Amino acid sequence: MNTMKMLVKREYWENKGGIFWAQAIVGSFYALMLVVGITIAMFSVKHGNGVNFNGVSVHDLSSHMSAEDKLGAAQGLAATYLPSVAPLLIVLAFVVFFYSLSSLYDDRKDKSILFWKSMPVSDTQTVLSKLFTILVVTPLIPLIIGFFIFIILFTTIAIAAQTLGVNIAGPALATSDLYLLPLQVLACLPIYILWAFPSVAWFMMVSAWAPRFPILWAVGIPIIIGVLLSFSAGVTGLHIPHEWYWENIVGRLFGGFVPGVWLAFFDVSSGVTVKNDSPGGAEILQASWAILGYAKVWIAVAIGCAMTYAAIRLRRYRDEG
Predict the structure, then answer these.
(1) Handedness of CA 87, 92, 97, 99 (dihedral sign)
(2) b/e per residue, 200-229, with b = 16+ CB within 10 A?
(3) Dihedral sign from CA coordinates of 82, 83, 88, 92
(4) Among 179, 311, 198, which Cα is nearest to 250's?
(5) Cβ-based burial of 118 (10 A; exposed 0-12, middle 13-18, buried ≥19)
(6) CA distances, 304 to each of 157, 166, 202, 274, 308 (Å)
(7) Long-range CB contacts (< 8 A, 24+ apart) of 178-183?
(8) What's this model's pTM, rounded to 2 decimal places?
(9) Are 263 and 279 contacting, i.e. CB atoms less than 8 angstroms apart?
(10) pLDDT tens over the chain, length 321 residues
(11) How far is residue 182's CA from residue 143's CA, in Å, rounded to a whole number?
(12) Own/partner long-range contacts of 312-318 (Cβ < 8 Å, ≥24 apart)
């Protein structure tokens, strides 16, 4: 257990730039842009004389808002965690993509694999520590940073609204969504781990094997196969399932790095109740866990296990010359 803990720490410190700093820099810039934009908009509205909402002056807006209107505004404010974390999840997809691709190749490239093979650390422990860091540690960072962005965004909007005479901070703090939404997004993490696992395993397997330029092999092989299948279907007229291949192999492979994309691959809408015409955290969580009822999810996980085993064997016997 201590060995695995040290290996995970090693992975974090060696890849801190992608795991933490990329997310922190993007998150800081995003939070700054939001604060500046909201502040400028607030001062423009505050000092403007002709700003109206449905014929009501912004300065008299609070007196014309019903309790239901204020509750709706408070719920909207409480739901700002999703837009706070969304840009970081896009960055996460790129980080996981390139981290997986270089995870085992870089050790061979800089010959540090010779040092680690001299240590009492097995190839299984090394590969699993990298897999754990990619699938568990790395996705946790944007969720944490997104929470701080959420606090900043919540505070800024609440102050701006109060400056305009609308108190929505109190009702928002009394709304359960404010506290549940971050937990609901966090509860989707196991789904992301299962969803991304086959894609990460494929890239790690190629990373352990590729003699040069692993990105060309990891990306090129499935795409070339798809092109050949489509070309063969067009030339021969045979019923070759090339469309199925592009959607379920290529699309699934590269879509596996993107959080939330699993909702586009499965029809789970029939078992999900959506409130207020737009899905919130509870609906997204319910729909995400519903994909576990599909056999192809577990088939992909089984294939991911096989590719992980292959990565371990390749790391053990790959010719380092």
Answers:
(1) positive
(2) bbbbbbbbbbbeeebbebbbeebeeebeeb
(3) positive
(4) 198
(5) exposed
(6) 44, 52, 7, 33, 6
(7) 178/78, 178/154, 180/281, 180/282, 181/78, 181/79, 181/81, 181/82, 181/280, 181/281, 182/81, 182/143, 182/147, 182/150
(8) 0.86
(9) no
(10) 578 888 899 899 989 999 999 999 999 999 999 999 888 877 776 665 544 444 445 555 555 556 666 666 677 777 888 888 999 999 999 999 999 999 888 777 766 555 555 566 788 888 999 999 999 999 999 999 999 999 999 899 888 888 777 777 777 888 887 888 899 999 999 999 999 999 999 999 999 998 888 999 999 999 999 999 999 888 887 788 888 999 989 999 999 999 999 988 887 665 555 455 445 678 888 999 999 999 999 999 999 999 999 999 988 776 444
(11) 8
(12) 312/123, 312/124, 312/127, 313/123, 314/104, 314/205, 314/208, 314/209, 315/104, 315/113, 315/123, 315/126, 315/127, 315/208, 316/123, 318/108, 318/208, 318/209
Q: Residue 49 CA to chain centroid, in angstroms?
A: 43
| 193, 136 contact by CB (below 8 A) | yes
User: Residue 275 corresponds to which amino acid?
Assistant: K
Q: Which amino acid is at 260?
A: G
Can you read off the two tokens belonging to residue 48?
A: 């403007």
Give me the helix-helix angle, 177-186 and 281-290, nearest 10°: 20
In 3-state terms, what secondary structure has residue 187? Answer: coil
